């Protein structure tokens, strides 16, 4: 039984994700700013963009925490199995 090693994201992947998020957010803000509509519609779209941005960070944090919890439980289960196997002596008499 081998425990799965957690995958580690590379710095390039982290940079790409950060840049794509920044480009998407800045593009949305630019589009809202230059949209030819009334100010209240612009404000509504701006609040929607802000809400979407904060909820995406919250969702990412929840997914990360769920994966961390699952990894800890898997490691605890593996430690219990390793302990049982270490204590098991196949040559011990059962009587």
Describe this structure in words.
It is a single chain. The protein is mainly alpha-helical. Helices cover 76% and strands 0% of the residues. It has helices at 11-33, 39-87. The radius of gyration is 25 Å and the shape is rod-shaped. The two termini are 30 Å apart.
Question: How would you briefly describe this protein structure?
Answer:
The chain has 95 residues and is mostly helical. It has 2 helices and no strands.
Chart the SSEs and their pairings.
Blueprint: H1 11-33, H2 39-87
Instruction: Outline the low-pLDDT stretches.
Output: none
Shape: rod-shaped
List the secondary-structure elements in sequence, H or E.
Answer: HH
- The counted number of beta strands is 0
How can the largest sheet be summarized?
none
**Helix residue percentage:** over 70%
Please give the alpha-carbon distance between the first and last residues: 30 Å
Structural class: mainly alpha
Summed over residues and divided by their number, the pLDDT gives a mean of 84
* Beta-strand content bin: under 5%
Number of helices: 2
Rg = 25 Å
Keywords:
single chain; 95 residues; mainly alpha; 2 helices; 0% strand
């Amino acid at each position: 039984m081998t425990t799965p090693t957690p995958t580690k994201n590379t710095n390039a992947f982290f940079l790409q994700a950060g840049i794509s998020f920044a480009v998407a957010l800045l593009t949305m803000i630019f589009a809202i700013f230059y949209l030819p509509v009334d100010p209240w519609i612009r404000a509504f779209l701006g609040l929607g963009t802000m809400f979407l941005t904060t909820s995406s960070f919250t969702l990412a944090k929840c997914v990360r925490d769920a994966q961390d919890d699952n990894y800890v439980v898997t490691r605890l289960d593996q430690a219990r199995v390793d302990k049982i196997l270490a204590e098991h002596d196949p040559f011990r008499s059962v009587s």
